[in-house]
# Entry
Amino acid sequence: MWTWFYQLASPKWFYQFSTRLLPWFRWITGLLFLLGLALGLLFSQVDYQQGNTVRILYIHVPAAFMGMFAYVVMAITGAIGFVWRIKMAHIVSVSCASVGALFTLLALITGAVWGKPTWGTYWIWDARLTSFLILFFLYLGFMALHNAFDDKKTADRAAAVLAIVGLVNIPIIHFSVEWWNTLHQGATISKFEKPSMDADMLAALLVMLAAYQFYFLTALMQRVRAEILVREKLSGWVQKLVTGNNS
Amino acid sequence: MAMKPHRKKRLTAILLSIVGIGTVVGLVLYASDQKMNLFITPSEVNAGHAPKDRIFRIGGLVKEGSVKKSSTTLLTEFIVTDMVADVYITYDKLMPDLFREGQGVVAMGRLNDKGVFVATDVLAKHDEEYRAPEVIDALERAGHPQEAKQQAEQLNSVDNQNESATNGNN
# Structure
């Protein structure tokens, strides 16, 4: 078990291992999206109040969840890199930022598109929407801070500290709809109660969530591979790989 | 598992800072509890907690049987309730599609001299329920007449609104 753990922490080993894994992940992501979009947009029923507007939720809810999920991964791998000085942990942490920011932006945009016909407004400064906007700014801040340093090691540590500090926002986003009066509704799916949603809608939502999850893993893997090549550009195996491809 | 001292120090620093930041943010949020709320309830308004001469938001359910629509203008009068207290609201613009009796709403505006809330903006609050229309029939068959009746009423009012909307367009 420990050898596997140490291998994972080796950029070279990860690069070679992920080369074999990547095609599978791409296929699974594509198929899950096809299935999820077909279920959500074509085969699931309309909502008794919202009609077809409900279909935005199959894009919006997984995007919002993944926006928060990617942030947690970014903060935890950042912390691991900070404490144990593991290069690969920082590479994963840094690679999470742009993918997570994309999820967050998508959730903000689809939420606005849903809000106009349902609530009557694109945006409102309630606790849920505001804290989620802060999440987006945290991602932007993380990327800006990481780019502000020439030295990668300093950049990694500074950005990791920012990610850990911003972690406090995640429970605030989650519980905002319970702690305060908000326009945003509470959670539909919770671990302890029966979801207040019909089975076909729930199935579509869960497949879409799996699709987003695999998209995240695929995109993250590709970003990590690119980051490895940049950081290891002076090492023998990368130079061999690059010149080998060119000849 | 034995940890090297400098790593242990860094890990402790991180854990302590998470606890510290969490406490600080928690205290700040707790202290500004009222400001974090988007709206206040009818009970709070009746208890005199509503700001005078300032715009604020009020949230609650549209009371059953309280909606009066003007036949010539867009003016709508209704009561918003939290099942304890009621507040009269008037609004003279187009209502959101989801507005109907029993629906959660958030209205922005101010109280006039008579204690009527004059709204400048009304938003519909969506709940966390997502149901297909057919489910209402199913509930009735399964022997939940109360819930089925409730949902059927909501569905009817949606249909009525859609009908009146199409009629209006014609």
Chain A has a mean pLDDT of 91. Chain A has one domain: 20-188+199-241. The longest helix of chain A spans residues 11-43. The CA atoms of residues 95 and 224 of chain A lie 6 Å apart.
